[in-house]
# Entry
Amino acid sequence: MKKMIQHGLAIVDSPYDEDGKKRSLVSKLLLGLTPSQYLLQAFRNPLNWILAAVFAVGIPILIGRFFFGLAWATSGSNDYPWGLFLGFGLFAMVPLSSSGFQLGTACEIFGRHDLEPIERLALLNGLLGYFFAVIYLLADLGQPWRLPYPMVVSFGPAAVLFLVAWHVATYLSVQVAEVSSAFFEWIGFPAGKRAIRRITLGLTVSGIILSTLHQGALGALFTYAPGKVHPLWYSSSFQWLHFFVSSLPGGLCMVITVSTIAAKTMGWRGDTRFHEKLDKVTVSLAKGACMGIATYITIKLIAIAHDNKWAYLDSGWGQWFMFEIIVGFMLPLTLMTYGVHTRKMAIVRMGAFMTVFGVVLNRVNTAMITFNWKLPHREIPPWREVVISLTIFATYIVVYRFILYRLPILFKWRLQEQEETVPEAVPVPAPGRREASSVPVASYSSMTKLD
Amino acid sequence: MKRRNFLKACLIGGTTIALGKTNKGWASGSFEGYPEAMGVLVDTTRCIGCRSCEAACNKEQKLPEPDTSFDDPSVFEHDRRPTAKAYTVVNRYQKEQPSGPVYRKVQCNHCNEPACLTSCFVNAYTKTKEGAVIYNSKVCVGCRNCMIACPFNAPGYDYDSATNPIVKKCILCYDTRLKYGKPPACVEICPQEALTFGHRADLIKLAHERIRATPDRYVDHVYGEKEVGGTSWLYLAPVGFDKLGFDTTLSNDPIISNVKDFLGMVPMVLSIWPALFSGIHLLCKNQEHDGHGHDTDSNQEDTKP
Ligand code: SF4
Ligand code: SF4
# Structure
């Protein structure tokens, strides 16, 4: 892609091409390339080859799981009913996706407009994380086609999972709405965008509520198994707080991680605003994450003191626990604080990667590794389970990249400048499939001061 | 921010509160166990490990052939747990003791306030008035949360089935016997009368009576009388229960009481958050009008003409 831009390719960042003509949907989908150019750049990218290899092995196995059952694909253990799909896919993806509601809150509620260059990335990160957590869940459920049952067929409202199901479902739709404004810009449907703009505050507030509740609820799920989760990872009064609070730095650091990767591997896609403001925004996010981590470490220690669990620290489990806390939380806290003060971005980013690792490790520890700590054997996920998990994760990467390449997430969709060049009176039909809802240009100016 | 938007935010908040209230209303109905509940008393001092109960269960519940026959003693080498193919198993403990080994029959204990029931998000479980905890496989989604929750690791999952995997566990022969007042198959077949079927309340009296009559024979505890809120299956043992693979760390509170902290918090969040954050939003907005530059460049649609 970089090479092609050097050779004078214009990046798609407005409804019009270089000659001022409207771009068709196909041209937008192909990033303004001809089909052969598009294929060429796809073939040149080594990541695509790796992904292709993963899919070649993974997709048949994923399909096999639905034909031969869970016992064929996973450890299918009665003692460890939740394996990698949930332990990693659901429990780790969800906290890393708390970014959407946090930046939504910061920008829309607290008025931190300086964070806006990253807001859409955070929203998208949230949406995709949740979406793929649900995909992992579908792979894990014994009868995935019954997933809507808790909504329509039979209710178990005293169950925490019932809350999780409802909240994740509602929150997914909230996030779809939030991200859709970028999609409406891209597809050229300003009316839709305006509609979303009007309900943004409502969406954001419901996002905060739903996130608090289901991030916490994922933790509360383990309060059903008081003796099974190792006491160092368990606290009947604070479990939901531990999960909720650690999801905050988890989500922020995930955005730092993704934005770093995006800036490195698809620099052409970000506009100057994104690249110029990225360091500043990263510092703000890191500061927030540091607050979160500090709080998390504190309440974790309070929980240990509250139930007087110090003795457990002096055991193999205790060392593993210390490893998680130190490498996953304390060290990144130190690194990020230092990095923020000295403006050493590499160190800040390093800290953010480690936090992401720490949060994932914490969830995997709670759901799988320390689960049933009293039983003599530990469950090692069989290879098919690992391959399926990888395949779903690879799909996540592909979808993530597909959207970042196209929708105005890392760059602004240039409407304004173009408008000035288009004569006022000429009605501009909405392109592509939205032909019917043609909107006169004048409406853009009436959209000002919406909020 | 326009007043309309604020009202809308409040409205959304209000609806969610209403939803939360109903949630709470359902959740708070805690289940105490039925007074007429039946149960089984297992006297481990009488059990000889013949595994006839396993065989009877297999036949009654039409379970698949076991891998080894029911009189193969090699199964005692490892601890087993109930699975989807065997709702009950007998394990051997205290193998090296001079007093001889102790056998323990394991199955679903039919809790008074079952963790499986309260954790299931489609309400697949029912505690019947006869005391059995039964299960509706028609609605099960297969999340296996009940297996996570069960403190006795009783439910097994049909991992082998691709099209209709379901949770399987002892149902106290509810469909075929209990409903008609008959004892479960395992109780009926036991040659040693190690298993006694009756009203749970009577069985507790009987158990304490046995302990009182022959205190040398038993430790002074009836397992299941109080554990996790009480279970329909009760156990007597000659040695400490921890030596027989029982979890003696369980509290007397039902499992759901661990979760109540969180469930109680839900309506709080639902009612406080909307007002709190809408309020903060208003505060922040006013500030901006006082001159703290709203980054006009940051959102093209906010740009003033
Ligand atoms: S023993 Fe387990 S499966 Fe049986 S009723 Fe109690 S919680 Fe449910
Ligand atoms: S039939 Fe009775 S004696 Fe034999 S193993 Fe079962 S409970 Fe024990």
